[in-house]
Design goal:
The complex is a heterodimer of chains A (432) and B (379). With 432 residues, chain A is an alpha/beta fold. Chain A has two domains: 83-390, Thiamin diphosphate (ThDP)-binding fold, Pyr/PP domains (Rossmann fold); 404-432, no CATH class. Helix content of chain A is 35%, strand content 9%. Chain A is built from twelve helices and eleven strands. In chain A, α1 (25-33) crosses α9 (296-312), α3 (125-132) packs parallel to α9 and α5 packs across α12 (367-390). Chain B contains 16 helices and 14 strands. In chain B, strands 3-2-4-5-7-6-12 form a seven-stranded mixed sheet, with helices on both faces. A five-stranded mixed sheet of chain B has the order 9-11-10-13-14, with helices on both faces. Chain B is globular, with a radius of gyration of 21 Å. Chain A: Residues 25-35 have a biased composition (Polar residues). Chain A: It catalyses: N(6)-[(R)-lipoyl]-L-lysyl-[protein] + pyruvate + H(+) = N(6)-[(R)-S(8)-acetyldihydrolipoyl]-L-lysyl-[protein] + CO2.
Amino acid sequence: MSALSALKTLPSHPIAGGHRRRSSPFLSSLTNTSPTGHQLRSSAAISVSLSHSVIAPGRPVRAVSANVVSEEKQLEGSAFPVISREEALDLYEDMVLGRTFEDMCAQMYYRGKMFGFVHLYNGQEAVSTGFIRLLTKGDSVVSTYRDHVHALSKGVPAGAVMAELFGKAAGCCRGQGGSMHMFSREHNLIGGFAFIGEGIPVATGAAFSSKYRREVLKEACDDVTVAFFGDGTCNNGQFFECLNMAALWKLPIVFVVENNLWAIGMSHIRATSDPEIWKKGPPFGMPGVHVDGMDVLKVREVAKEAVGRARRGEGPTLVECETYRFRGHSLADPDELRNPAEKSRYTSRDPITALKKYAIEHGLVAESELKAIDKKIDNLVEEAVEFADSSPPPPRSQLLENVFADPKGFGIGPDGKYRCEDPGFTQGTAQV
Amino acid sequence: MLGVIRQSLGCGALASSVKILGRGVERVIPIASAAGRNYSSVTKEMTVRDALNSALDEEMAADPKVFLMGEEVGEYQGAYKISRGLLDKYGPERVRDTPITEAGFTGIGVGAAYYGLRPVVEFMTFNFSLQAIDHIINSAAKSNYMSSGQISVPIVFRGPNGAAAGVGAQHSHCFSAWYASCPGLKVLSPYSSEDARGLLKAAIRDPDPVVFLENELLYGESFPVSEDVLDSNFCLPIGKAKIERKGKDITITSFSKMVGYALQAAEILSKDGINAEVINLRSIRPLDRETITASVRKTNRLITVEEGFPQHGVGSEICAVVVEECFEYLDAPVERIAGADVPMPYAQNLERIALPQVEDIVRAAKRACYRSVPLAASA
């Protein structure tokens, strides 16, 4: 599995003509960074229709199809790996943490420690790791209900996430959010949204605030926002509204579509008139990129460019990551509609195994080191479970806390003073 | 010159705000009322429109994090001219014209508020907020709770609410009960210019999401304002109602335009010897239960007046509160006066009877005072 053939450009529109020759920012940056740039060649089987261009006339951006689906011809082994040893270890550890954590969640759910709606991320780790490990602490991540691994990649401690799932006071939201509503101000993880499409405008707003701080408040702020959402969301009105406004106002945001082909039981092909989501970027004036979401190195290359674009102030990017969830939509989903052949096709391209193979083949790490990481993560997750298990549930007084930032919102009590000023209001633990 | 002003106001360090505030207060000079009445220079008059405009102006001058976003707020000077002059003063970055994307720009406002900016999101009417209600409820109201205090949302959603004149069913819906039922929101509804100024300033300074329900027909109405109101730090407390007219025979609660109707009804009733106490709620959530129940304990009779639909309305809540807290003090059943339980018709005569009128309030008050046959007996 090579990460170097990550991009392929579309042929220019016959009518648009020769002035399209200007190379896309993606291509040029990639040829610059990869030592064996000449290996960028067209792959044999391109499934996506390339007969028509999606470049709007007069637009400098173009849609780039990056490493389309699976029948990619394997390149000869490249001489130089695209990542360093430290990066390989970091990526591997992050993906293994995500996988092990999610597997433990399933176990805990069936033992009754976790309840409600739990949506697991198995199989999609390459997308989370590929993007989030490139971000700084100040950058924001907005996610959906499938947000455990985004939280972990962004740096929220596993114990805090597990305690939140158990509904304990030591959780990252003190048990008030739950599986679908992970928030961490410290790590700039702002959700956790249950409604699909709800996080996209919020992410656009976070990007807006970054630009506003820089341009109106004159603060040094180049924080970028990365919004994760699924294929089903790409048919929602809010998605298009935000593509428009993000491009219109040139906001520092990356829209990442985790296209796992299924929205609960609704296949993406059945729900969408044009299933190629990456093509929906250029009509709004931003580049649309398609990348193999099962390969963390390819995702990382695309992420570097997209995040770099946003940080330089060049505007948003739409990245479609073709990925797959190995489990059902949630732990309550019997997952009967998906074809076992399709499932096995993707499980054979497990991102963790792929990275392991790549790292060992390129001599970056020894197998024993990876096994040591596996063991370390196993222990970490076990400790997280113990921590969560032994934490107390929230006290009753917590029920009324944090409804408002200014608790005078609870109004005026019978004595004419604000209710929150009464020390018995939440038994003394409310922040007034 | 305008460019210079824009720059100095744009990068607001609070040190420079003192001068700006001074300028802001000077700007608010007595404005001739729409009806062209002339008063002596002792009483200053201000329309609700100018009250809102001046409140926005002063808050934007004081805090550079405040910005206004909505359809037609910039170049068009505001769909109802509430934001007149603000684009020239503060520039397009702080007075943002948006495309017609309520869900999108409301969500953008919420996301910006997560990061400490203080957006004022204008809905052309609150009917359009239905397209964005997911963000008002789910990402604004609930976020502080779901994140357990990590993320507060200092945002204001404002715009005209309720019936206007002849605008039909889809433009006349009153949403006070809808938003007031949701924990995590504060819902305000001003009546006079003083209310408009004080409550809007309080809303913008508040660290929580506030739904600010104005009324289109009140925008042009003039009210006397005192010097205190014109001060740039004038804020009204959220959660406190105002007793517009003291009385002892019957309590009439109302908000927004209906306060004016209630006051007129009180005048008529006073000729019949019924001394009505009129309460201007100002704050629908949190409801000032104390002022209402204290008044009922004094007068022993209550009617609630609102423009919106009767079922599950604000009046229903007030009635329940009074029954819970001061049932023994009631000498007569509580009556709710609300709009007719039909989508607003277009024809003028039908629209008039679909909304509460002063005569309805007077009749209800007389029934409560046993001056006429009670409704239940005549049914």
